[in-house]
Amino acid sequence: MLLASAQVSIGQSCPGCTGTIKTYTRADSVEVNSGNNNFNRDSWSPINVPGVNDIARFSTAGNFTWRPNNATTIKGVVLEGNANLLLDRSNDGNNAVFIIQGSSAADKGCITVRSGSTLTLRYISNLNNVTICVEEGGRIVFDARDEDRNDYLFNGVDINLQGPGAQIEFGDADINLGLGGVTVTGYTGSGCILNQDGSYTLPSPVPNIIADPSTTNLAAFCNFLTAGGFSPLPVEWVYLNADFNNKERTGIIKWATAKEWENSHFEIERSVRGLDEFTVIGRVQGMGWKDSITEYTFFDKNLPLTGGNILYRLKQVDFNGIHSYSKVTSIKVANIPYTKGVWRAYPNPYAGEIFNLELIDEREYFGEDLRVRLISPSSNNKVITGTNLRLISGSILEELRKATKGIFVLEISWGQKVEFIKIMKQ
């Protein structure tokens, strides 16, 4: 038997609930009534029903109903051992039937639902300064017997879901947020979709915090997700993929959206060194508002010569500057073999009057598109494309004239080949 003054922590995957824990000892599925301290007072260990500083623990398999005569304040609830508990009230007007709360943000109450157990709240309840932890296979349901008794206050609530099978479900529920707000970790989904008419579409695929679209106040639910760090998505993705065109040595990124709401643009980001070094390589304008499928394509014509595994992702930016990222997709690119003596650039050193790029070895070039750029810290590394050597030479001349004096590298690539020529500007 536990002493009334004992400070106990019960922990498995979820952290323990610290406080005076009173365990309900009856194994049969009966109603637990705390309105009268003489009713069921002997069914708790330590004796007497849980009070404002106590944590109620149900650890026996079965279905239990706690239906108090009056509003009840406790510090927490722990369910384990396949215990299922319903918190309910026959009628108490618009008053909260259960108030589960800690004394402060530093001394939080707790709700812990371990694997195989379910906690159901079915009458107005307030959660103040509470940590909610649900283990894989555990479940919490916020519901109501009628729409006038379905308000739930979340004020200073931290939610911790221990896996995709740790579930929180909202049925006929209105969610109200206090000044303390809510934080969420372990959520497997995203924010809601905000439609052009102001309505909401629930996240898809179904995550581990769900709502019933036929009964839940969706605006309040989506606001709850936003407060937890999952804002309404300006776009609903259909697909994102990338392909490599070997002949033109170009990455082709394609994506589609099913809906867009306040979508300003997409920034295409690329990385050649893993997931930590993405850089922006392009921008594509969004549709703003659209309720049908839109397809997009972006061509990455400036792939690194060394090849390798090239990663892409999209940064979606709405009109307010808020952004989110797509998944990551990739292509594999072969490296380009270097040539020497196929091209000649003259005069070199360059003195500022004329400049020519000339083909020397006709066995190495068969009319493919050329991609030429002048590389140095002082140049803009502009890529010049085409097959007309006179026009390409003129474009290189313009770049040289704008650049400061120094050493440059002229990169010439075509097909699966590349050549570098060092140029000095006097």
How far apart the termini lie comes to 92 Å
Q: How many domain modules?
A: 3
Q: Report the portion of residues in β strands.
A: over 45%
- Structural class assignment: mainly beta
Radius of gyration: 32 Å
Quote the average pLDDT. 86
Helix content: under 10%
Shape: elongated
Number of helices: 2
**Unreliably modeled segments:** 1-11, 35-39
Number of strands: 33
Most strands sheet = 11 strands, mixed
List the topology elements.
Elements: E1 20-24, E2 31-32, E3 44-45, E4 54-58, E5 62-66, E6 72-74, E7 76-79, E8 83-87, E9 98-101, E10 109-113, E11 118-121, E12 125-134, E13 139-142, E14 151-161, E15 167-170, E16 174-177, E17 182-185, E18 193-194, E19 200-201, E20 209-211, H1 218-227, E21 235-245, E22 250-271, E23 279-290, E24 294-300, E25 308-318, E26 323-325, E27 329-333, E28 343-346, E29 356-359, E30 370-375, E31 383-386, H2 389-402, E32 406-414, E33 417-425
Parallel strand pairs: 1-4, 2-5, 4-7, 5-8, 6-9, 7-10, 8-11, 9-12, 10-12, 11-13, 12-14, 13-15, 14-16, 14-17, 15-20
Antiparallel strand pairs: 1-3, 18-19, 21-22, 22-23, 22-24, 22-25, 25-26, 25-27, 28-29, 30-31, 30-32, 32-33
